RNA sequence: GGACGGCUAGCUCAGUUGGUUAGAGCGACUGGUUUACACCCAGUAGGUCACAGGUUCGAGUCCUGUGCCGUCCA
């Protein structure tokens, strides 16, 4: 074996062989319980980020653990066509070539985009393989695949037929860069420092008299069609019905009264621009006002803005209109003003409220979606996210699902040529289109990407095609077992998948029907949802490509190995908390792998014939006569650890599970058991038994660790001889009881007190080492010690003397009846040890040290005595707590006595 | 403005139903190549658990309020 673990070769070789063996393939198997996960599909042209590493490592852990436990596992991978993101990238590329999408035309552009996708897409799926992800790659799905597209259109058609989908002219969020409508969820509110302008409007019937209006958007004044006041505002007793003159693009506009006006904001008077503000739009509708849209779709001003401003960009126009108003004397005041502005999620520019014709969806199954989570059919980890989810559903708004893009699923609605497209009489809505296509024109828009990905759990498994569903095992694998995703897409994706599952999985539903609990259980897309934290950099900022603060995971794999990366990231990922990234933790992950490698190496050096595949076989090598307290203790700890880890995996407490494995492996097994075993390796007699115990421990550690570190565990599984031709992927680690039963069946009774003894002996050894270290004595300096303790404890110590001597690096440990004079000492719960120094000691320093110790003991004793002296404590506290305190008091009093003895012996 | 989360050792974080003297890793310091591992071993130092009240025999843990940081929704 190599002296250090070399991940690279192992990873490539093993991944290849796993794939070759079809280990990741998920098939329905009536003999086994199903376990399934659908991957949150990354953008097809995306590259692996630390967020993906976290997210997919968790999914892989779940999948691999389930495989070990005998489930038939499907982890279904795929990619998302990511409408706006991908189209933007392709358009940018075209622009570099001096072309626009219009040069290519719709068909040509789509051809081009597909080529681009095929060339640059799917990189991330290759990267996931490097990470070790055990996805069933044969079942990779892309949201623009023909079958998937059909499912998307089918869903639209069904929703339309059931009256959930409608078309309407509404105020929508418009992105002037992407030139498309967006859903509310795609708008990000950001606080901005702008200006509040006070502008005067002249009263038509009273020249020279002005009204003052505050606005943040002077560039829309040309679209003003009224001023509005609150009907109960006493400041303006007689304005209603009168007119003012619009200061730009002059025209006479009315003054209206409306309850929606905020009396306290600005001057209490509002300019009404129905085309450019949702509230103004509502007010305009109530008062039957005209709508003047002064913008083009790209955010430049149009001819209605007048010759002074037409063609200008909206931000430029803001400055220009202010300037013009100033010249005219109509600008009264301007002041700094902080407000929230909606930004386009993708293009990161302020969105424009814009009136346009769009398709909307009234969500189906909202009530059942609430029940699904509120009543626990779907469990959220951590549960607090259910509150966020429910709050959103309580306030749900219709979903604008049409996008003015080409890259996506084209809306399956056709309009009869030459007829009024607004009249539903002239619509054809179907998946395959009309039989006489020459007489029809298809809608230009495509569907929001999320209106395809919300079908992910069903459409990746053949829905709506009956035979495909059967073949792909939808009924076997659905509902999927767990979904692992970030809380940032709880509305975009999680909530919508739940509604889509409830609506579409199973028999078609009447819109007025209400699902029973039983139906909800069958239709939900997943049972558990695990929300990961967000990965931040060392300064606490979100890792993002634009900030350039995210390391490339592939570099990290190169440097520390995939297992090291996985182990590192999982060890710092507490459930549902944000994660502060630190490369040191990844390094620790690599170190852990190396430790595992080396202890295995040590094991084989002792006996290169290796181990046997089953615990039963290994147990046969144990000679009960040679089984010592150390063996008992480590096996007990192993049983404990197996139970603990089992429980923690079930609760998605991955970092705690890892910590538990780490503690057992590194502290108990390597630092203590294996170190102690070295003398037995030499001695001969207990060697075989000791190696067998080591083998059981190593075997179980590898099994427990395999989901987190699949490569090194599979490699060592084979190297150490546990495999016997069977991959570690298919072997169940079992829980503590399982192992305890096997040990018992071999006729071995584990003694519980062995653990306690071992801990006491460890404390003693630590004290002895500290005595040496304090005086800078080398480990191999064989000093003599004396030991002072009562009979019972001395007896235990005698049984462990040889291992204590070798652990400490001591020549002797002799029992004495009273404190030997002039020696440095340490007092433990198990007695006092004195170190015999050949050279003299610094009496003052020793006194100081022991006095300090004594002082703290006195404090502790006082505090316990105080507690026990309190009648209400002894009466009200549980008996075991009171007993514990008494025991503790006794121990400390003894320690105090011994410390005083040691002090006395110094003088 | 509302909701949620965080505040524990120099740093990053554990700490499950309240119950011994609050833990780990990293970093710092001291010493060390003994049959695996310097990606290692042994040891040492370092904490008024954000603050203020309250409940309790007992609070890092429960309650109320305050502050700062972060996220989401208006």
Overview of the molecule:
With 907 residues, the chain is of the alpha/beta class. It contains 30 helices and 29 strands. Helix 18 (562-571) packs across helix 19. The longest helix has 30 residues, at 654-683. The mean pLDDT is 86. A hairpin with a 6-residue loop joins strand 10 (243-245) and strand 11. The strands form nine sheets. Strands 7, 8, 9, 10, 11, 12 and 13 form a seven-stranded mixed β-sheet that branches. A four-stranded antiparallel β-sheet has the order 6-5-14-16. The structure holds one RNA strand of 74 nucleotides.
Characteristic terms for this protein:
907 residues, alpha/beta, seven-stranded mixed β-sheet, four-stranded antiparallel β-sheet, RNA-binding
Secondary structure elements and pairings:
Elements (H helix, E strand, L loop, with lengths): L6 H14 L13 E5 L11 H19 L3 E5 L1 E2 L3 H14 L4 H20 L2 H9 L9 E2 L3 H16 L3 E11 L4 E3 L4 E17 L6 E6 L10 E4 L13 E3 L6 E6 L11 E4 L5 H9 L27 H15 L2 E14 L7 E10 L4 H9 L4 E3 L3 H10 L4 E2 L1 E2 L9 E4 L10 E3 L10 E3 L3 E2 L2 H4 L2 H4 L6 H7 L1 H4 L2 E6 L4 H15 L12 H7 L2 E6 L3 E2 L16 H8 L1 H10 L7 E2 L2 H24 L8 H6 L8 H22 L3 H30 L3 H19 L4 H10 L16 H10 L7 H22 L8 E6 L2 H18 L1 E6 L9 E4 L2 E6 L6 H27 L1 H6 L2 H28 L1
Parallel strand pairs: 1-2, 3-4, 9-11, 15-23, 22-23, 24-25, 26-27
Antiparallel strand pairs: 5-6, 5-14, 7-8, 7-10, 7-13, 9-12, 10-11, 14-16, 17-21, 18-19, 18-20, 26-29, 28-29
Helix pairs in contact: 1-24, 3-4, 9-10, 9-15, 15-16, 17-18, 18-19, 19-22, 21-22, 21-23, 21-25, 21-26, 22-23, 23-24, 26-27, 28-30
The structure holds one RNA strand of 74 nucleotides.
């Amino acid at each position: 074996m190599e002296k250090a673990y070399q991940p690279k070769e192992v990873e490539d070789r093993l991944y290849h062989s796993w794939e070759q063996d079809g280990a990741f393939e998920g098939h329905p198997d009536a003999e086994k319980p199903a376990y399934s996960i659908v991957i949150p599909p990354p953008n097809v042209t995306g590259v692996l980020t630390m967020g993906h590493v976290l997210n997919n490592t968790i999914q892989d852990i779940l999948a691999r653990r389930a495989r070990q436990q005998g489930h038939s596992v499907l982890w279904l991978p795929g990619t998302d066509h990511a409408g706006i993101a991908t189209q933007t990238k392709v358009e940018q590329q075209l622009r570099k070539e001096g072309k626009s999408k219009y040069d290519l035309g719709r068909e040509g552009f789509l051809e081009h985009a597909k080529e681009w996708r095929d060339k640059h897409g799917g990189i991330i799926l290759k990267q996931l393989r490097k990470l070790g992800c055990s996805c069933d790659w044969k079942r990779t799905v892309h949201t623009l695949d023909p079958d998937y597209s059909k499912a998307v259109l089918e869903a639209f058609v069904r929703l339309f037929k059931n009256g959930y989908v409608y078309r309407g002219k509404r105020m929508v969020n418009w992105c002037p860069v992407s030139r498309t409508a967006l859903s509310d969820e795609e708008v990000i509110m950001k606080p901005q420092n702008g200006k509040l302008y006070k502008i005067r409007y002249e009263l038509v019937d009273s020249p020279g008299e002005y009204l003052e209006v505050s606005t943040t958007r002077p560039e829309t004044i040309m679209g003003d069609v009224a001023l509005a006041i609150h009907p109960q505002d006493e400041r303006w007793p007689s304005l209603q019905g009168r007119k003012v003159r619009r200061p730009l693009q002059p025209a006479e506009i009315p003054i209206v009264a409306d309850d929606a006006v905020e009396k306290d904001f600005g001057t209490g008077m509002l300019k009404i621009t129905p085309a450019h503000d949702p509230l103004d739009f509502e007010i305009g509708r109530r008062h039957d006002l005209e709508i003047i849209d002064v913008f083009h779709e790209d955010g430049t001003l149009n001819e209605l803005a007048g010759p002074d401003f037409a063609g200008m960009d909206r931000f430029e126009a803001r400055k220009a209109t202010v300037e013009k108003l100033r010249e005219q004397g109509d600008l009264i005041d301007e002041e700094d003003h902080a407000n929230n502005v909606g930004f386009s999620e993708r293009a990161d520019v302020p969105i424009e409220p814009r009136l346009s014709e769009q398709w909307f969806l009234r969500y189906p199954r909202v009530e059942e979606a609430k029940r699904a989570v509120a009543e626990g059919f779907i469990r959220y980890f951590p549960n607090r996210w259910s509150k966020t989810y429910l709050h959103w559903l309580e306030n749900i708004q219709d979903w604008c699902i049409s996008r003015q893009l080409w890259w996506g699923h084209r809306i399956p609605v056709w309009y009869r040529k030459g007829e009024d497209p607004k009249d539903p009489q002239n619509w054809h809505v179907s998946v395959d289109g009309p039989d006489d296509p020459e007489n029809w024109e298809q809608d230009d828009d495509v569907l929001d990407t999320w209106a395809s990905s919300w079908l992910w759990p069903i459409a990746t498994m053949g829905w709506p095609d009956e035979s495909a569903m059967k073949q792909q095992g939808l009924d076997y694998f659905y509902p999927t077992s767990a979904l692992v995703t970030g809380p940032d897409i709880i509305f975009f994706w999680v909530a919508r998948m739940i509604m889509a599952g409830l609506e579409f999985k199973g028999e078609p539903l009447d819109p007025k029907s209400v699902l029973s609990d039983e139906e909800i259980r069958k239709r939900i897309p997943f049972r558990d949802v695990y929300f990961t934290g967000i990965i931040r950099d060392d300064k606490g900022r979100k890792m993002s490509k634009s900030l350039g603060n995210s390391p490339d995971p592939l570099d990290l794999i190169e440097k520390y190995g995939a297992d090291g990366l996985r182990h590192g990231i999982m060890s710092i990922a507490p459930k549902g908390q944000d994660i502060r990234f630190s490369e040191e933790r990844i390094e620790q992950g690599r170190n852990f792998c190396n430790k595992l490698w080396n202890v295995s190496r040590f094991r084989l050096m002792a006996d290169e014939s290796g181990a046997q595949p089953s615990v039963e076989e290994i147990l046969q090598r144990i000679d009960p006569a040679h089984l010592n307290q150390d063996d008992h203790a480590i096996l007990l700890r192993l049983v404990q650890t197996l139970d603990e880890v089992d429980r923690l995996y079930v609760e998605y407490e991955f970092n705690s599970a890892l910590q538990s494995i780490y503690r057992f492996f590194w502290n108990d097994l390597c630092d203590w058991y294996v170190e102690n075993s070295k003398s037995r390796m030499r001695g001969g007699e207990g060697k075989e038994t000791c190696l067998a115990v080591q083998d059981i421990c190593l075997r179980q550690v590898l099994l427990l660790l395999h989901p987190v570190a699949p490569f090194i565990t599979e490699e060592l599984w084979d190297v150490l001889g546990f495999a016997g031709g069977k991959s570690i992927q298919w072997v169940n680690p079992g829980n503590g009881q399982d192992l305890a039963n096997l040990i018992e069946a071999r006729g071995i009774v584990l003694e519980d007190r062995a653990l306690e003894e071992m801990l006491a002996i460890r404390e003693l050894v630590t004290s002895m080492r500290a005595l040496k270290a304090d005086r800078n004595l080398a480990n191999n300096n064989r000093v003599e010690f004396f030991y002072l303790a009562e009979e019972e404890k001395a007896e235990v110590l005698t049984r462990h003397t040889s291992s204590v001597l070798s652990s400490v690096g001591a020549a002797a440990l002799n029992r004495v009846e009273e404190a030997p004079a002039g020696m440095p000492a340490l007092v433990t719960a198990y007695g006092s040890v004195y170190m015999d120094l050949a050279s003299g000691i610094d009496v003052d320093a020793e006194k100081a040290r022991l006095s300090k110790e004594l002082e703290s003991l006195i404090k502790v004793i006082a505090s316990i005595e105080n507690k026990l002296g309190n009648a209400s404590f002894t009466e009200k506290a549980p008996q075991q707590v009171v007993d514990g305190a008494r025991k503790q008091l006794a121990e400390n009093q003894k320690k105090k006595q011994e410390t005083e003895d040691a002090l006395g012996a110094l003088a």
